[in-house]
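Summary of Year 1 activities. Much of the first year was spent building the evaluation harness for sequence design. The harness presents a backbone, in tokenized form, and records the residue chosen at every position. We chose the following record to illustrate the format because it has been used consistently in internal testing since the harness was completed.
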């Protein structure tokens, strides 16, 4: 019997950690059409430039691209369609209050399957300035250098 891969990321938003400070994450369900699920299982999704909007006590995922299913028919889905997120009412209210603060936004970090259901990891993010981005790059480079030194010393 084949083993199922659980919680494997279909797609990740790699620009998110570069452009934002991620302060809090929350898991949300995703309302999809049939061909969208098939496209996600093939890994045909892109989260760059996408964001989450709270409107009328409902959360929506905007600008997320899920490519059309290759073997679909005329009933195939629209790639840039607005998709509803499944969250509890209290979670949505808390997120709406935090978004109202200056500089905060909700961005999707990754899409993955958990127990056969498509899930989105949404992050409460605050934008980085140019010097913050440079500082983050310097920190990563210094960590790599330290790891390189330790590896060479252990040889």
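For this record, the design step produced the sequence shown next.
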């Amino acid at each position: 019997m084949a083993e199922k891969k659980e919680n494997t990321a279909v797609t990740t938003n790699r620009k998110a950690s570069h452009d934002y400070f991620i302060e809090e994450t929350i898991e949300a369900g995703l309302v999809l059409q049939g061909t969208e699920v098939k496209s996600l299982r093939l890994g045909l999704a892109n989260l760059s430039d996408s964001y989450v909007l709270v409107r009328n006590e409902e959360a929506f995922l905007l600008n997320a691209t899920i490519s059309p299913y290759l073997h679909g028919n005329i009933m195939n889905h629209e790639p840039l369609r607005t998709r509803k997120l499944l969250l509890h009412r209290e979670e949505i209210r808390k997120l709406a209050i935090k978004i109202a603060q200056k500089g905060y936004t909700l961005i999707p970090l990754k899409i993955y399957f958990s127990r056969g259901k498509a899930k989105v990891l949404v992050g409460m993010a605050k934008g980085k300035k140019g010097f913050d981005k440079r500082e983050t790059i310097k920190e990563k480079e210094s960590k790599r250098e330290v790891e390189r030194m330790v590896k060479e010393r252990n040889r």
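The first helix runs from residue 14 to 19. Quantitative recovery figures across the full test set are reported in Table 2.
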